[in-house]
Amino acid sequence: MDDHLKENHRLSEQYFSDVVKKAIRTVPNWPEEGVMFRDITTALQDRTVFRKLIDAFIHRYHHLSIDAVAGVDARGFIIGSVLAYELNASFVPIRKKGKLPFDTVSESYELEYGRAEVEIHKDAFQQGDKVILVDDLIATGGTLLAASSLIERLGADIIEAAAIIDLPDLGGSKKLRDKGLAVYSVCEYADD
């Protein structure tokens, strides 16, 4: 890509980030004291911002040959299903344990206080499928790491792990990159 195109791409990504970030509501001290909760519902409720949010992902991936978009339960479904539609790809839900009706594989991961588990249907992908993995937020990275392991166990290739928001101070995006995954977020918040 020549320098002019790179600069246009960077400016487009900055534009999308600015629009979406302005629309996200910050709720102090929720769900507990000291937490600054980033509420995406305000961005989703504004039809113009929601369209710009989807456009940010489409702008990033429209030129690639994507077979599937995998969305993580439950907010990854919001962006993932719309993105799959726009990219003419299939949508694959990665659910909390016990929510899928057919043969599944599962992966557990650490939470702040305990463990959780996600699962996927065994027939969700074909060998070598090109997949975008989507969630709303990258915090500590546990859910996306578990989801990426499931996708890889089924023989698909993850093009990128993507989210609306990255909280880089919590280390999740670094863990994903350390695993060898490309990572993209529309916007990020450092500790305030």
Description:
The chain is an alpha/beta fold. It has a single domain, classed as Rossmann fold (3-Layer(aba) Sandwich), CATH 3.40.50.2020. It has helices spanning 3-23, 41-45, 47-61, 75-86, 142-153, 172-178; strands at residues 25-28, 36-39, 68-72, 90-96, 104-111, 114-121, 130-138, 157-166, 183-188. A hairpin with a 2-residue loop joins strand 5 and strand 6 (114-121). The longest helix is centred in the N-terminal third of the chain and has 21 residues, at 3-23.
Which secondary structure elements does this structure contain, and how are they paired or packed?
Elements: H1 3-23, E1 25-28, E2 36-39, H2 41-45, H3 47-61, E3 68-72, H4 75-86, E4 90-96, E5 104-111, E6 114-121, E7 130-138, H5 142-153, E8 157-166, H6 172-178, E9 183-188
Pathway: Purine metabolism; AMP biosynthesis via salvage pathway; AMP from adenine: step 1/1
Family: Belongs to the purine/pyrimidine phosphoribosyltransferase family.
Protein name: Adenine phosphoribosyltransferase
- Tell me the CATH topology: Rossmann fold
Order of helices and strands: HEEHHEHEEEEHEHE
Strand order of the largest sheet: 5-6-4-3-7-8-9
Name the CATH class: Alpha Beta
N-C termini distance? 35 Å
Total E-strand runs: 9
Number of domains as seen in the coordinates: 1
What low-confidence regions span 5 or more consecutive residues with pLDDT below 50?
A: none
**Shape descriptor:** globular
Instruction: Please state the average pLDDT score.
Output: 94
Strand residue percentage: 25-35%
Structural class call reads alpha/beta
Largest sheet geometry: 7 strands, mixed
Instruction: Examine the secondary-structure arrangement and name the CATH architecture.
Output: 3-Layer(aba) Sandwich
Give helix % range.
25-40%
Radius of gyration: 16 Å
Instruction: Please report the number of helical segments.
Output: 6
